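Why this split exists: single-chain examples teach little about how molecules sit against one another. For that reason, every record in the complexes split bundles all components of an assembly together and asks for one structure covering all of them. Below is a record exactly as it appears in the raw files.
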Amino acid sequence: MTAEIITIGDEILIGQTIDTNSAFIAKEFNKIGLSINRISSIMDRELDILNTLNSSIDNSDIVIVTGGLGPTNDDITKKTIVKFFDDTLVTNQVVLDNIKFIWKKYIKQPLLQVNIDQSLVPSKSHVFVNTKGSAPGLWLKKNNTIFVFLPGVPFEMKELIKNSVIPKILNEFNLPYIIHKTILTYGMGESSIAEIIKDWEKSLPNDISFAYLPSLGRVKLRLSTKGNDLQKITNNINLYTSKLIPLIEDIFVGYEEGESIEKLIANKLTSNNLTISFAESFTGGKISDTLVSVTGASSFFKGSLVCYSTASKVNNLNVDKDLIDKYSVVSKEVVESMALNVKKMFNSDYSLATTGNAGPTKGDSNKEIGTVYIGLATPEKVFSFEFNFGNSRERVTGKSVNKSLELILKELLKN
Amino acid sequence: MTAEIITIGDEILIGQTIDTNSAFIAKEFNKIGLSINRISSIMDRELDILNTLNSSIDNSDIVIVTGGLGPTNDDITKKTIVKFFDDTLVTNQVVLDNIKFIWKKYIKQPLLQVNIDQSLVPSKSHVFVNTKGSAPGLWLKKNNTIFVFLPGVPFEMKELIKNSVIPKILNEFNLPYIIHKTILTYGMGESSIAEIIKDWEKSLPNDISFAYLPSLGRVKLRLSTKGNDLQKITNNINLYTSKLIPLIEDIFVGYEEGESIEKLIANKLTSNNLTISFAESFTGGKISDTLVSVTGASSFFKGSLVCYSTASKVNNLNVDKDLIDKYSVVSKEVVESMALNVKKMFNSDYSLATTGNAGPTKGDSNKEIGTVYIGLATPEKVFSFEFNFGNSRERVTGKSVNKSLELILKELLKN
């Protein structure tokens, strides 16, 4: 069984919108044993849509198409479906009732004819009611290929994939299992890792594929496999993972599956009844925001001060003005004072502080652009690290957030 | 002239990585008058790569391919290129010198054979040296189609697109102009907007296309056109835009081109010498982070307190404990007190505060999940709004950030 995804929308082709729908669908499909072989993004243009749908018949068993189902004139997917399947549109009463309900309860504006027309569906389609919006999901078959059309609004698409599309696929097909195991490493480049583990990599059986994913100072290592015997493939992946870990002990921080680094930090803090706080300068709240994204953060996250300017470091965080004048605002001395003071301010067990010149121009410090200090205060001590993360503001910030999370986790793992 | 993008990498097809490269390339290409007709993501598999490259020969004049050029075994693009172009690999001395330089200056680890091998390039290719990494860009021609191969690391790809690929395209081809004008609206659904502007939409000439882009409580309206006479198409777009704005005056907040809402806020604050601060509860630093992303934020952004827990609202922001007990932590009274106190704390002219039940479970308040209060303090007064943004945590947070920015801008535009 092979699947592919087609996203329809000019906004993707002109770079106005990043296609996040495909990654979501691919992930959910992998969980049920369906591999995605191709993702295509095309324009809201009849000929492009028809050509792409036609080429999918030979390529895939299941084709998920998102986008172009809205009520406005620029959306032409439904008209095009009718041509492709040689079908006509008919009113679906359940969809119409759902639209009326949504308009009455949430939209609270007059129901227009274009909204009512959203209940028109191809007569041959199996319909999935969309409880979050007006465009229903449509399941149609041509030759031996199944086509599923879904609205492009991520919120609505996700709901339909999880609660309607996947249950129907599982009901109709017998699928294998796909397993990915991703290992998080920090602090070494991909070619150096490859050199260290080359014998291990050569020993991998054919049914396990292996990939390196480098990004902003960390490399993810991914093992993937597929098979009908879940127990067997799980054991196999675990066996080769257990042989890999000792080779990369120094750079290994954990696994990705459902366990982002922020989640690993959260687990460690929660299980040890520890709390943390942040003083963020150029990272502007990004570290806090990353940690708050973990459910239940209020039990370990005491709060943060975003102190972007030198003035707020002095006035709101009580960093000594003399210290700043003597060492500059981007310095070991200042970041350690920030970490200590924010820990006291929020009465937390741990704290982390950032200060740096993220560019594009130098701020209140003469340190080279890209210079970053990260300070960490623990119940026992305070210490800090200096980095240079280059001259791209976005990259300096991204790398600093990753490095901060890495430093916290490493510190927590010591206990 | 038509172009397409192919991204190679299993990580995209299994949903582990979101393809952000394509949006960047599409945007840059639109700026020079090149439309993207198709974006495809495929696996690191020889047959898939060869088939997709073959199908591009008929479809496109320029094909940008990213990914699969790394030094490790999972990357097979270069081997496959050699087959596709019936070519051989030769050492490129300039690329080799560049790799040696990078290793000496930045990597500071031994240069391995796999790193040296990155200087092997197809003999027929025009080579773009990658100053940020080891994989060079490659420009090759088959029949009448140009193929450009670039590393998938966003940082390296962006540099090569801007400084090497686009200059060469501009040098070899005479391209038309593409203009997009995107209007930002807040507070009305797409079908209601369509109803209000339907006569205007009908009056649009064939060479202007129009699209609605709804997302998290705002709708973007986009006019697009293409032509050889820049002055003429610019005038045409401006003419129809000026006819549209009066029809949507109540919901219009500005234009998108280079002017995100945070930039509009930054401009307004800077030009009036005003400052702002935030007290963020469930938004966790996201509003601060959005504003800090604007260059020069230190001149108007005084700082933020991320006070996620009830305790930090009391201890760090001095919100009256009795107020919380009486009205609950998610209330008009508390959010207004937060706004007033954070304004005082940072001595800013304006401030904004958030508190809410973002879900998935109720926190320290019994208010329904999705309930959000946003408070705004100006030099003269304090006021707040209550919203319900549904039951998805991610969506509640996203909508709240958007709504907060909208409220700030609206308030600033009053002066």
